[in-house]
Structure formats: structure tokens, C-alpha cells
Amino acid sequence: MSAEYESVIGLEVHVQLKTKSKLFCGCPAEFGAEPNSNTCPVCLGLPGSLPVLNEQAFLYGIQIALALNCRVAGRLKFDRKNYFYPDLPKAYQISQYDQPLSSGGHLLVEMKEGQKKIGITRAHMEEDAGKLLHEGRAGSVVDYNRAGVPLMEIVSEPDIRTPDEAYAYLTALKAVLQYVGVSDCDMEKGSLRCDANVSIRPKGETRLGTKVEIKNLNSFSAVKRALQYEIARQIDAAEKGETIFQETRLWNDERALTLTMRSKEEAHDYRYFPEPDLVPFTVSSDWVEDLREDLPELPAARKERFVKDYGLSEYDASVLIQDKDLGNFFEECVTAGAPPKRASNLIQSELLGMLYERGETFHAMKTTAAGIAGLIRLVENGTISGRSAKDVLADMLETAKPAEDIVREKGLTQVSDETVIAEAAKKVIAANPKPVEDYKNGKEKSFAFLVGQVMRETKGKANPALANKVLKELLG
Ligand code: ADP
Ligand code: ZN
Ligand code: MG
Asked: Could you tell me the distance, in angstroms and rounded to a whole number, from the CA of residue 49 to the centre of ligand 2?
């Protein structure tokens, strides 16, 4: 980025709540059903039909608000947001306008430079629209299965400063929602959607610049790429003395650029007014406090616990807690007897990398937490070397066999017999007169090289500590 400008970013996230039924009717809210099969007079907006609030969705909404440290409103009120579009059969969306379910919260975001607090302006409930399908057809068709599915819209303050921070914010938000258990947060299935607002301003300026809203962002990395592009575009325009217009732009991932969708002049006037078919009601603060008490452990608290109870570094803890299931997997390894630091290291430096290379996730992998703990036990008690552990792990992922069986079948048991190691060490010394000479002249690196050769000579099976000791003795 140019030295004279800073970027200012605010994100609007829509998250689909994983209720069984829709927000105001009993139709299934599931994804992937036969088009238009999950519909009824209410979600199709037929005359005379009346909405009834889904209690589970309301509960999830409050849980999200609490998990994001928001104030919960004492009164629940819905409004009609009017606009005409084929995917919106009523020609209005039931949403919340001037009295959102919650406001004034924050989310802690992990950056390399440390933690950052991003303000949450508001989090409110609304219903989703249907889905228009254009591709592969002469005309367009519409599927109303999604119409009326419950959403929470979570709006951040313009506190985000860089595309990396935006990425970290989304990662942290997804983790919180996953821990509370209210959404799948799957961007591919559209259960999490994000619009990004971005402006630039000269460094030191406190007023906000003119913002551009970016839509059509299909992954967290697309959000980051789109912001990078848009910031560069705005700075370039500013430097040429051009005016930046308030507008909505669409991210085109293939061409890696944003294009104008509509300008401020064409902006909607939604003519909000209170939804007359849903009577406002009071939200008891005692009930809200009970819900707060019942919230599950959230990522930030879990991270602290991992540092405190397991002695992990802040960084290691933050990687493990990012995904609830990964955190659980780590804790299962510990419960199965693995020392926490070893389990953390094995998971982070070997397991995740290997799974990535195999194109697998740990949800679908063949080995279990008990299996990993078993592998770690073999390293701990000296049966195999750390180096063989990698090979054994790779085999476990391939065959689902227990570590013990693989070690036995492949003859990987670590050699802790001093005479065998001495045999190998003598060979190495004879074959490497130069490094031996260097070591004797005080070059420590040469010793490491010689140990490496002993390991090689024994096909990685020598107990490294013993190889060290024996070699030192032989070299005097
Ligand atoms: P709108 O009325 O256009 O929806 P809002 O004030 O509701 O605008 O803000 C929508 C989002 O845009 C919020 O996430 C907010 O933080 C962000 N935002 C507002 N102004 C700016 C700005 N000047 N630059 C970047 N982001 C902004
Ligand atoms: Zn319905
Ligand atoms: Mg807005």
C-alpha cells in the first residue's frame, strides 16, 4: 500500500441459522432439496398467510449476540424492508431496522502482531430470499426453498484496517459461531456470506472516506483478494486526482477485479416500516442472563485454558482452537495419554501438513485420537525415533492400522543396542575423515553431520541420544 494512505474496512456477514424449519413457517430449512419443494403459503407470500416466529431461531440469535459481547435489546421488533425482485415473493423482506436484536459488541481477532478488538455495530435477525438461477438456461428460474430461512446479519464497525485483518476477523467470527453451534458457516453452501465495505483516507485523517461495497465474495480468501484489489484501485484513483464514488461493485474472481454494479444514485429506498403481522414483545433480561450462563466455552476462553492447563504457546493454542473439532481432537489425544506439547507438535507440524498434501481433512482421516496417542507413546518410550514417527504417521493415514502394527511389520523399532550403534558409528568415522578432522578442530557442525550419517547408516532407527553418546565416546 502507498505510504500516505490507510484503508478502512467494515464487514457485513450473513449467517444462516441451522434450525430445522424456516423463520416464520414450518417448512424445512434444509439445503439441497428438490427446487420449490420446501414452500408454503407463508414463505411464498400468498395473501392471507401469517408469519409465526421460530423460537429456536430467536434463541440462536440471542446466543450469537451474547457470544459477540453485544447488548441484547429489551424488545423484539421486526420491520418490513420493501423492494421488488423475483426472488422475494412478498416484495418485502422481514428484517429488523431501528431496533435490532443486539448491538454494541466486539470480537477479538488474532493477528501476528497480537490481539485486536473489532467492534460489532449490530447483529439482527432477518429472513433469507429465494435463489435465482441463470446458468445453462434460456431464461432465469427461481427456487423458493431458501425464502424464509433464518439469518443473522452481523455488521462490524469500520475498525478493520487491512485485508489480512478482514481475513482474521472472518476466521474468528466463524470459530465463535461454530462453537456456539448455531450455523454450518459453509461459504460454499451459502450458509455464510460476506459483503465488504472499504474506503481509503490519508494517514492521520480521522474522518471516513467514501466507501465502496463489494459483493459476490465466495470465500475468505476471495474477500482478501477483492479488498487488496479495491484498495489499490482507490489509491490509484486518488493519486490521479479522481473522485471515488459511493457504489456497489462485484468481485470477479476469474478476472481478479471489481466491476461497478450500481451507483449511489440507483441505491434502494427500502421504505422500512414495522411488520404489522408480528407483534413486538419484551425480552426478559433474566432469561437472557440464563442463556449467557449456558453458553458453551468460546474460542478465546479455550485458548487461554490451553495455554494455562497444557502449557502450550499462545500461537499453538490459537491454531488448535480455530476449529472446534480440531481442538476436540487435540484434547482427545491428551485424554488418551499423550503429553500435550507433543500432541500439539505432532498435530501442527506433521498431521495437518500431511492431510493437506493428501487433500483430506482431519474429519475424514483414517486414524483416531487414540491412534495418534499410541504413536506418541512409541516415541516417548523410545520404541521408535522421531524420524520414523513421520513415516509411521503417513502409513497410519493410508492404512488406518495402529502404530504398533506398522512399527512391527516394517521393523522400525528403534535400535538402542550400543554395540549395533557403535558398529555403525565406526563405519561412519572411517568413511568421513574430513568431518572427523573438523570436529576434532572444534567444528560443532561436523558432529551434527556425523550423527546424521549414523542415523542414515541405521536407516533412521538408531536412538538419537545413544548415537550422540556413542559417537562422542568413539571420537574421544
Ligand atoms: P449502509 O447504510 O450503506 O449499509 P452502514 O453505515 O450500515 O452503511 O455500514 C455498512 C458497513 O460498512 C459497516 O460494516 C460499516 O462498518 C462499514 N462502513 C461504513 N462506512 C465506511 C467507510 N467509510 N469505509 C469503510 N467501511 C465503512
Ligand atoms: Zn413455508
Ligand atoms: Mg447497512
From this structure: 10
If one looks up domain 418-475 in CATH, what number appears? 1.10.10.410
Cβ count within 10 A of residue 32: 6
State how far the Cα of 227 lies from the Cα of 195, in Å rounded to an integer.
11
Residue 39 CA to residue 35 CA, distance in Å, equals: 9
Contact residues for 193 (Cβ-Cβ < 8 A; gap 6+): 13, 14, 15, 187, 217
Q: What is the pLDDT of residue 1?
A: 54
Determine if ligand 1 sits within 6 Å of the CB of residue 145: no
Q: Tell me what the mean pLDDT of segment 286-304 comes to.
A: 96
Ligand nearest to the CA of 90: 2
Shortest-distance ligand to the CA of residue 149: 2
Q: What is the CA radius of gyration of the chain?
A: 29
Ligand whose nearest atom lies closest to the CA of 36:
2
CA-closest residue to ligand 1 atom 7 = 155
- Ligand 1 atom at shortest distance from the alpha carbon of 156: 14
| Ligand 1, pocket-test mutation among 9, 156, 197, most atoms within 8 A of CB | 197
In the chain, where the domains are located: 5-290, 297-410, 418-475
β-strands 212-217, 247-252: how paired?
parallel
For range 180-200, the mean pLDDT: 94
How far away, in angstroms, is 270 Cα from ligand 3 center? 12
The phi and psi torsions of 116 (rounded to 5 degrees) equal -135, 140
